[in-house]
TrEMBL record:
<dbReference type="InterPro" id="IPR011010">
    <property type="entry name" value="DNA_brk_join_enz"/>
</dbReference>
<dbReference type="InterPro" id="IPR010998">
    <property type="entry name" value="Integrase_recombinase_N"/>
</dbReference>
<dbReference type="InterPro" id="IPR053876">
    <property type="entry name" value="Phage_int_M"/>
</dbReference>
<feature type="compositionally biased region" description="Basic and acidic residues">
    <location>
        <begin position="343"/>
        <end position="360"/>
    </location>
</feature>
<dbReference type="InterPro" id="IPR025166">
    <property type="entry name" value="Integrase_DNA_bind_dom"/>
</dbReference>
<dbReference type="GO" id="GO:0006310">
    <property type="term" value="P:DNA recombination"/>
</dbReference>
<feature type="compositionally biased region" description="Basic residues">
    <location>
        <begin position="365"/>
        <end position="377"/>
    </location>
</feature>
<dbReference type="InterPro" id="IPR038488">
    <property type="entry name" value="Integrase_DNA-bd_sf"/>
</dbReference>
<feature type="region of interest" description="Disordered">
    <location>
        <begin position="337"/>
        <end position="377"/>
    </location>
</feature>
<dbReference type="GO" id="GO:0003677">
    <property type="term" value="F:DNA binding"/>
</dbReference>
<keyword id="KW-0233">DNA recombination</keyword>
<comment type="similarity">
    <text>Belongs to the 'phage' integrase family.</text>
</comment>
<dbReference type="Pfam" id="PF22022">
    <property type="entry name" value="Phage_int_M"/>
</dbReference>
<dbReference type="Pfam" id="PF13356">
    <property type="entry name" value="Arm-DNA-bind_3"/>
</dbReference>
<dbReference type="InterPro" id="IPR013762">
    <property type="entry name" value="Integrase-like_cat_sf"/>
</dbReference>
<dbReference type="InterPro" id="IPR050808">
    <property type="entry name" value="Phage_Integrase"/>
</dbReference>
<keyword id="KW-0238">DNA-binding</keyword>
């Protein structure tokens, strides 16, 4: 018959002094005090589970006397009850700690982790927009909420608030980002479901409007006259003319650094990181574009960006600048900055001899030759 350990007393524990090597004081039924050479006294519980002997520390954070003899015995009683139910006390403790950690993770913490993970693979414009939606719409609304506690109705309310401003495109982007953030949370194991799935089912119906509207090519001279006459910032006027001359995406043009232009060779080389198709692209520049860029150099050549923002030169011109200018000129609903990309293919349809020039035009201008009136966005 095994010898029964004499239960410990507080006086026995208090008078126990450290030795050169660790030693233990046994209380019985698996509970003992591990005394280290540095004087720390940690409670451990020894048990067998699945044929293996376990000796986990009851609390790394609390040693004796912070975790008293009475409380250590209560922990032992709880652990023995788990063993009686066929549960591993050590595994249960780890699971509880992980659950507590997960429950305390906020949407802001996970969304910023998601952004940091994905941003290096995105185009600069995509990363800029994603961060903008995070900072302006998502984090102020649900940033402080534990991500595992966020419900679908909360997300529906959030998206509807954005829709109520009339910004349906922004609402669509926010639905997309929410879905991706919760997918990331699922993969990380911090949420058990994705409440952002199928939010498009309850989305506001889209407005009946042309996608990237543009005027007929024949109206372009009149538009250019109005552009010169309009009371606009010089950078806005130059940016609009360059859009027309290069058929670039507004997002690519407004964020272009001077390093991408070779004015002597009259070329614009966009690295793959800034291209929607994720391939580097070289655009030959017409002499009019080179002339505009030489004028621009005198104004913004000291900055990294060709079109720096008014408030912060390290950020690009606002994405709404050109469209706002076109609205002021009376072209609302008829012409957008992105709509200028349709003009080269429309003109090609009227003048087939321009085909060789189109072959050197922006990347996606060459992918839709069978439908010359439309360029994909």
């Amino acid at each position: 018959m095994p010898r029964q350990a004499t239960p410990l007393t507080d006086s026995t524990i208090k008078t126990a002094r450290p030795k050169e090597k660790p030693y233990k004081l046994t209380d019985g039924q698996g509970l003992y005090l591990d005394i280290k050479p540095n004087g720390s006294k940690l409670w451990r519980f020894k048990y067998r589970f699945g044929g293996r002997e376990m000796t986990p520390v009851i609390s790394w954070r609390l040693s004796y006397p912070d975790l008293s003899l009475v409380k250590a015995r209560l922990r032992r009683t709880e652990a023995r009850a788990m063993l009686a139910e066929g549960l591993d006390p050590g595994a249960q403790k780890k699971a509880a700690k992980q659950a507590q950690k997960t429950e305390s993770l906020t949407f802001e913490t996970v969304s910023r982790e998601w952004f940091a993970y994905n941003a290096p693979r995105w185009a600069d414009s995509t990363a800029y927009k994603a961060k903008l939606y995070l900072e302006n719409d998502l984090l102020p609304s649900i940033g402080s909420r534990p991500i595992a506690a966020i419900t679908r109705p909360e997300l529906v309310d959030l998206v509807r608030k954005v829709e109520s401003r009339g910004t349906l495109n922004a609402a669509g982007k926010i639905r997309q980002w929410l879905h991706q953030i919760f997918r990331y949370g699922l993969a990380r194991g911090v949420v058990e479901n994705n409440p952002a799935t199928d939010l498009d089912v309850v989305a506001a119906p889209p407005k009946a409007a042309r996608h990237h509207p543009h005027v007929p090519f024949a109206e372009l001279p009149k538009l250019l006259e109005q552009l010169d006459a309009a009371k606009l910032n010089a950078l806005t006027r130059w940016a609009t003319r360059l859009l027309i001359l290069t058929a670039a995406r507004p997002s690519e043009l407004r964020a272009v650094p001077w390093a991408e232009f070779d004015l002597e060779a009259a070329t614009w080389t966009t690295p793959k990181e800034r291209m929607k198709a994720r391939r580097p692209h070289v655009v030959p520049l017409p002499r009019q574009a080179v002339a505009i860029l030489r004028q621009l150099q005198e104004v913004t050549g000291r900055y990294d960006l060709v079109f720096p923002g008014q408030q912060n030169a390290e950020r690009p011109m606002s994405e709404n600048t050109i469209n706002k200018a076109l609205r002021l000129m009376g072209y609302e609903g008829r012409q957008t900055g992105h709509g200028f990309r349709h003009l080269p293919t429309e003109h090609r349809a009227e003048r087939p001899r321009l085909q060789p020039r189109l072959d050197r035009a922006p990347a996606c201008a060459r992918r839709r030759r069978r439908n010359p009136r439309h360029l994909p966005g």
